[in-house]
Amino acid sequence: MVPVRAISDVEQGSLLVADPSMSDPNFRRTVVYVLHHSEEGTLGVVLNRPSEIPVDDVLPSWAGHVVEPASVFVGGPVEQDTPLCLAALRTGERASAVPGTIGVRGPVALVVLDADPDLLVPRLRGMRVFAGYAGWSVGQLDSEIQRGDWLVVPALPADVLASPDTDLWGHVLRRQGVPTALLATHPGDLQLN
């Protein structure tokens, strides 16, 4: 039996992992990193949807500083013309002490894109650019969790920089242990089984 899902488990820096049966093409087999969660709603970015658009086309001053691949990731269906940048800070750095960052949780921070990259980048382990975000209004995410659309699990800082060659969705599920780990083998479409 998969653990009970609860809106109370959602917090900044947690992950929303799409249930294997989710059919919404915006979120099928996605891992969403929660950037903000409050009574007013929730927002996050999809971590595992790289695009073909080079960062150089969107934010040329940051292009040489992002982790491979140097492409923009699709952060979600909302405001896809709005770039966001997530970074993992180097060991010992705190977002509150690094100008040009806004702390999310632990060493993960949002990057202020009008900051000077040359001053900021030496204090980062890596960063990634996202176009758009995922957003839920009051009660919407709670409804989706209760329906079984999302698993709420802890994030690791490395998740925000995971290579697109890695099956992040499967990897996150497998590290939850049994029985949740078994979902990583789910074909999604039971007709294909």
Features:
single chain, 193 residues, VC0467-like, globular
Work out the count of structural domains: 1
CATH level 4 superfamily = VC0467-like
Structural class, by secondary structure, is: mainly beta
Amount of beta strand: 35-45%
Distance between the termini: 20 Å
Helical percentage? 10-25%
Quaternary state of this entry equals single chain
User: What is the strand tally?
Assistant: 10
Taking all Cα atoms into account, the compactness measure Rg is 16 Å
What's the story with the biggest beta sheet? 10 strands, mixed
In CATH's first tier, which class applies?
Alpha Beta
Mean pLDDT: 90
**CATH topology, anyone?**
VC0467-like
Order of helices and strands: EEEEHEEEEHEHEH
Shape: globular
Which CATH-level-2 architecture? 3-Layer(aba) Sandwich
Low-confidence stretches: none
Which helices and strands occur, and which strands form pairs?
Elements: E1 14-18, E2 31-38, E3 41-46, E4 50-54, H1 55-58, E5 71-74, E6 78-89, E7 101-105, E8 108-111, H2 117-120, E9 124-137, H3 140-147, E10 150-154, H4 168-174
Parallel strand pairs: 5-9
Antiparallel strand pairs: 1-2, 1-10, 2-3, 3-9, 4-5, 6-8, 6-9, 7-8
Quick description:
The protein has helices spanning 55-58, 117-120, 140-147, 168-174; strands at 14-18, 31-38, 41-46, 50-54, 71-74, 78-89, 101-105, 108-111, 124-137, 150-154.
Description of the molecule:
By secondary structure, this protein is mainly beta. It has one domain (7-187): VC0467-like, CATH 3.40.1740. It contains four helices and ten strands, in the order ββββαββββαβαβα. Strands 1, 2, 3, 4, 5, 6, 7, 8, 9 and 10 form a ten-stranded mixed β-sheet that branches. 38% of the residues are buried.
